[in-house]
Automatic annotation (TrEMBL), chains A, B:
Domain of life: Bacteria
Principal cellular location given in the protein's record: endoplasmic reticulum
Organism this protein belongs to: Dyadobacter luticola
InterPro entries noted in UniProt: CPQ (IPR039866), Peptidase_M28 (IPR007484)
Name this polypeptide is given: Carboxypeptidase Q
Molecular function GO labels: carboxypeptidase activity; metal ion binding; metallodipeptidase activity
Subcellular compartments: Endoplasmic reticulum; Golgi apparatus; Lysosome; Secreted
Record GO biological process: proteolysis
Keywords linked to the UniProt accession: Carboxypeptidase, Endoplasmic reticulum, Glycoprotein, Golgi apparatus, Hydrolase, Lysosome, Metal-binding, Metalloprotease, Protease, Secreted, Signal, Zinc, Zymogen
Pfam families: Peptidase_M28
Length: 511, 511
């Protein structure tokens, strides 16, 4: 009977026995993570001390160098900033001043749009309210009537009072609804790329029309509320792209004020001064990589990875997106080192760059290390990776994990989550895919890459790409919980008899 | 039996029969207020078009002049800005720029503290973190170690994620809890005045110590959250007070950032430029007053008043505090005029100045018109006022009324509120006093002055004295409801056979 069951299980693809958890190790991890946490100090360094961490900017560099130096202090091996290829231009803000001066004075909450030029000294001008979404729109403004003007685009959003809390946690009912499989959205990559290309080309024509008309500055009202605004993806950072015209992104209330005045026939004058620096010569950027060497002779060549993206947007210190995830991963590594654990497999941390512009750091790392998702030509290390764990959904504590369509590790993860029943309320496993961050780079070559289910807190309302994504938005107790859980997942993965089960390999892509 | 009841009621002080409501008139008021509302346009003019309305500032003047001109257009009589005495200095911001420049660049959300000097051009300096609450604290800093520095005081508040909605409405349970009488807090006026005097004197010593040490600028982190901050009461606006040192009030996250960097031993440099203008020569300011003349030969000398304060703080356009109340009161008057109603008693609107600095406009108006609350020497008009209705609790719709300790009008108000059962959910009357605004000036001389119970919406969380008290925060549907209800209350009061019952007259004050 037993052997029949065993044979049956062997036939079940990807099935792995959930081994017993080493309770003594778990106790050490919990003690270090929950009672001696350093995650607050790590988060302070990544946010306050480093500053905004746009890829290739000095702020990113500060955070990366500090991380390497900490990892070395903790005794990790091969700690370095590992270059992965060409990113494009670095950029940072050196001055940001914007105010309405007529009909009366009002300082405006805003920041230069990423990768735009500065104003080359103070500028003043009357504001023209525009809405340029199509070629037809652009034609309307091609007659020189915008000459010498400052342009304002208002945000098409409701910024009125909200009767819902900014910060929320998942209820048990909401988590239960996440469990059933849903069809993954079909993403037509060539179509998507073409749409982006068309958008960029149109935006370049708008830019050159504005430049030809001597438009002084563009102001874009952004979604948000009460002093918080969500920045955009910015202008092009490519090494060969022309430098975009000066532009500010501002809070919706201030854009609304100017727009309403103009609609009432009242002329509005702004004054502005911005300075931005491009770092043209440094076209490469790197991921922070470090390792705890495995100790089992048979398994030490195998690797368990954990990571998150270290880069952020530029209008705040990127606390929840994604200093939180990096602080958790660094702390998880610190916990394992401080607890003196000797993993069988090698544990490798990666803090990625270029995530915000398209997962560049992780995609290139995977391509350079494991294989090419386009051709599915795999490198030898592909066989050696057990799993990659990622954190990039803000400050909220772990409530479960996305299987990313991979049923194999369900029983293992169930057991591991259950071992934290006191600090994970209603632990949840879903077969679903979740997107938008670096585990996808692993998934794309058929490697087990996982993202955790985290409480949302204020991610969608206040912090994701906003000017208010600051240290204050971090919930330290949640960061501690995450680091402790991740440390255990990573260690347990390193100790498993087998690697984490995999899905079928993806097919090479036609395009 | 009937006559016995009647005699009994006559013995019951302040009892007044609730007359029947004129349903045709009510229908006209509802139609004009709910279907043809102009409150949105009025609110736009008071906020966006006028700008911040600090008493005696050009913004206040714009709003007052526009209000007078509208009232005249609507056919009101005696529309004017009526001076009430000496207020002090007018003041406005002409430039406001503040940024961290080291260890990296970050523009800071802030505004000059009211009635402080500008920086006289750009200033740069290293930040010293201080906490000066007592004479002992001040002594610590009297040794010149602050010379040439920029001082930062951090806010002692939690600005972390909040799991409560910013905007709320009263539940029926909450309203029911407001009904029972509670003991009014005993306010020891001489003690309170002395405490304020001591505070001002200490603040002046801090200011002169800092000036003597050549402190360049003070930065005060204020309570708030995510780009919203609550400004303070500012420096002294008195005509004879020395001009206070340059100071900014800033968002808590930005104060927190600087403070944490300094605590980590990292030097922080700021650059700032502010310009402020004092309007020293114009030491008087006025209330906007206008009337709809009464038409009943016996009652037209009697007056019903409605009002709210027109002045605001300076960091936004004072939308909920209190353009909302003024827009509602102006709209209520417009409704009555447009509906062509001919009230028996005279109806008078008053939009007050100087409320934010101590109800100056209404207190002086009451003293000049009705009597002195100190001596209780009353003027002839005291006998002629039926009631004063005030709105100053933000944008939230009317849910009931505070009787202000005056049981007399309960039955009348119950009936009037009930006539709006479709737009007032769970109408509530409480015997309680509510404070902090201009109806108190009337109450202080024994005149019936009432403030409505309004839904809080975001008043305590986002708008009251904040930099984000903008037009976006207004709930237009609630303003319409308020204007309609107030128009009916005012008209009904003008038509009553008797004046609104009064409480016993207060005693003259010892001090």
């Amino acid at each position: 009977m037993k052997s029949t069951l065993y044979s049956l299980l062997l036939l079940c693809p990807g099935f792995v026995f959930a081994q017993e958890i080493d309770q003594a190790v778990l106790a050490k991890i919990r003690k270090e993570g929950l009672e001696n946490s350093k995650v607050q100090d790590i988060a302070h360094h990544l946010t306050d001390v480093s500053g905004p961490r746009l890829t290739n900017s000095p702020g990113f560099q500060r955070a990366a160098e500090w991380s390497v130096s900490e990892l070395k202090k903790w005794g990790l091996q091969k700690a370095e900033i590992q270059e992965w290829g060409e990113f494009g231009k670095g950029w940072q803000v050196e001055k940001s001043y914007l105010a309405m001066t007529k009909p009366y004075y009002m300082p405006l909450i805003g920041i230069p749009r990423a990768w735009t030029a500065g104003t080359q000294g103070p500028v003043t001008g009357e504001v023209a309210l525009v809405n340029i979404q199509t070629e037809e729109d652009l034609k309307k403004y091609a007659d020189g009537k915008l000459a010498g003007k400052i342009l304002l685009t208002r945000p098409n959003v409701d910024s009125g009072p909200t009767f819902k809390a900014d910060a929320t946690r998942y209820t048990a009912e909401e988590l239960d609804k996440m469990v059933p499989a849903v069809a993954s959205p079909t993403i037509n990559v060539p179509e998507q790329m073409e749409r982006l290309r068309v958008q960029r080309a149109f935006r370049a024509r708008v830019d050159s029309t504005m430049k030809a008309q001597n438009v002084k500055l563009e102001i874009v009202g952004r979604p948000g509320r009460e002093g918080t605004f969500f920045t955009s993806n910015g202008a092009s950072y490519r090494g060969d792209s022309p430098i975009a015209n000066p532009a500010f992104e501002i809070a919706p209330e201030h854009a609304g004020l100017i727009a309403r005045l103009i609609e009432s026939g009242i002329p509005v004058t702004l004054e502005a001064e911005s300075a931005t620096t491009f770092f043209d010569k440094k076209l490469t950027t790197g991921n922070v990589i470090a390792e705890i060497a495995g100790t089992d002779p048979k398994l030490k060549d195998e690797v368990v990875m954990l990571g998150g993206h270290l880069d952020s947007w530029h209008s705040a210190t990127g606390a929840t997106d994604n200093a939180a995830g990096c602080a958790v991963m660094l702390e998880a590594i610190r916990i394992l080192q401080t607890a003196g654990l000797k993993p069988k497999r090698t544990i490798r941390i990666a803090l990625w760059s270029g995530e915000e512009q398209g997962l560049h750091g992780s995609r290139n790392y995977v391509k350079n290390t494991f294989g090419d998702p386009q051709t599915m030509k795999l490198l030898p290390a592909h066989e050696k990776l057990s799993a990659y764990y990622n954190i990039d959904n803000g400050t909220g504590r772990i409530r479960g994990i996305y299987l990313q369509g991979n049923e194999g590790p369900r029983a293992i993860f169930e057991k591991w989550l259950a071992s934290f029943s006191d600090i994970i309320d209603h632990p949840t496993i879903t077969i679903r895919n979740t997107g938008g961050t670096d585990h996808q780079s692993f998934d794309a070559v058929g490697l087990p890459g996982f993202q955790f289910i985290q409480d949302g807190i204020e991610y969608g309302t206040r912090t994701h790409h906003t000017n208010m994504d600051t240290y204050e938005r971090l919930v330290m107790d949640d960061l501690k919980q995450m680091a402790t859980v991740v440390a255990a997942f990573v260690y347990n993965t390193a100790q498993l008899d087998q690697k984490i089960p995999r899905k079928e390999l993806p097919k090479p892509r036609a395009n």
